[in-house]
Amino acid sequence: MTAIDTGLAAEYAAIYAYGAAAVHLDGDPRSQAEALESEHRSRRDVLLDHYAAAGADAPPPESAYDVGVIGDAAAAQDLLTTVEESVAATWRAGLAATDPDERQLCLDMYSAAAVALARWRLAVGQPVADPWPGRPE
Amino acid sequence: MFTTRRGLLIGAAVLTAAGCTGQTGQITTADADLTAALRTARALAQGAEALGYNEIAEDHRTHAATLERLLRPNAIAEDETAAPADAAALADAETAGSAEAAEACMTTESDYAVLFGEIAASRAAHAAVIA
């Protein structure tokens, strides 16, 4: 799998998670979740265009993803924080790509993921500062 | 000086070990991308502090500390920079700093592409939450 394959898989999973979690949210978190879900769909579409332009078959999404039990708003917020951190970590890994086009795409996606992570943290009242978005601890 | 083949070989080994091989010495020079990233990190830290964005300033100080460590033994003096006029100006400076680090990520010939990408992404996130 390439870094872009892995990144697309992360975007598919994020879209699924937002679809499952957003209904448990209200107010600013709900609005931000809907906006971020739309952005993940846009990024997925950019990636699918990338595969089409290269004449390659994009990996398909899974039929479902394990998002655990989402019993309340707190669980939904925790899930989406984990999802955004995971997406950022996935795209960060692609920065080491030696192919310039692949690295550029991963950099663009990683920057967008870091912005999304910060906006989500802000919406749910978490600290937004992060010198190394997505870096494994 | 070396009267036997064995003496010649030993003499060559000694001279090589002593660094007397006729090759010019190499002066350690600072990586231009690391230096630029450090100067920008310091300027952004000062700007964020001046406007009360202390957590964001701490991110920049963390970047600066890492860059200083990578630039050793070179030491880059810290300059005083004018504080941004307001949050919008700081967000613009974060965006410009992100673009600088993103370009370094794409063009660096060193092993620091991931580091520059991380710094670019962190600055982009700052710009988004400040704006």
Automatic annotation (TrEMBL), chain A:
SUPFAM superfamilies: Ferritin-like (SSF47240). InterPro entries: DUF4439, Ferritin-like, Ferritin-like_SF. Pfam families: DUF4439 (PF14530). Residues 3-137 form the DUF4439 domain. This is Uncharacterized protein DUF4439. It comes from Glycomyces artemisiae. The lineage of its organism: Bacteria, Bacillati, Actinomycetota, Actinomycetes, Glycomycetales.
UniProtKB/TrEMBL annotation, chain B:
InterPro entries: TAT_signal. This is DUF4439 domain-containing protein.
